[in-house]
């Protein structure tokens, strides 16, 4: 799980940086989440392919299944971001909101992607 966490950290940095830039200057929170998350997902697939998981199916199949898992993660991420904007303690604290969403989605993605790549 250490290599997964490291590649996830890189993808998360891209996700956070892009999200914070977009939400600060260009887009509302949910569309910013969609763009930032999607960008980090593609990067993360290739990092996981080469450094984390043993590929036990075709690359095409793994990519498509990985995108299905990632769409689930995106929906979960967006729902958490949306919902936490109504939570009085977090309100407009984007870092805190994104941190909670990332923590939940991290475990969802790990187990989903491990299944995609290794069938476990």
Write a structural description.
It is built from four helices and no strands. The two termini are 14 Å apart. The radius of gyration is 14 Å and the shape is elongated. The protein has one domain (2-118). It has helices at 2-25, 29-51, 59-84, 94-118. It is mostly helical.
Layout of secondary structure:
Blueprint: H1 2-25, H2 29-51, H3 59-84, H4 94-118
Helix pairs in contact: 1-2, 1-4, 2-3, 3-4
Describe this protein with a few key phrases.
mainly alpha, 120 residues, 0% strand
Number of helices: 4
Percentage of helical residues? Answer: over 70%
Radius of gyration: 14 Å
Note the run of SSEs as H and E.
HHHH
SS elements, strand count: 0
How many domains make up the coordinates? 1
Quaternary state reads: single chain
In short:
The protein has 120 residues and is an all-alpha fold. It has helices at 2-25, 29-51, 59-84, 94-118.
């Amino acid at each position: 799980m250490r290599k997964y966490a490291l590649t996830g950290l890189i993808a998360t940095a891209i996700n956070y940086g892009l999200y914070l830039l977009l939400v600060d200057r260009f887009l509302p929170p949910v569309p910013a989440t969609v763009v930032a998350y999607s960008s980090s997902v593609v990067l993360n697939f290739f990092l996981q392919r080469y450094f984390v998981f043993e590929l036990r199916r075709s690359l095409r199949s793994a990519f498509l299944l990985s995108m299905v898992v990632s769409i689930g993660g995106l929906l979960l991420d967006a729902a958490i971001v949306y919902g936490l904007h109504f939570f009085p303690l977090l309100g407009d604290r984007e870092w805190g909101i994104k941190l909670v969403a990332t923590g939940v989605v991290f475990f969802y993605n790990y187990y989903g992607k491990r299944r995609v790549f290794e069938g476990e």
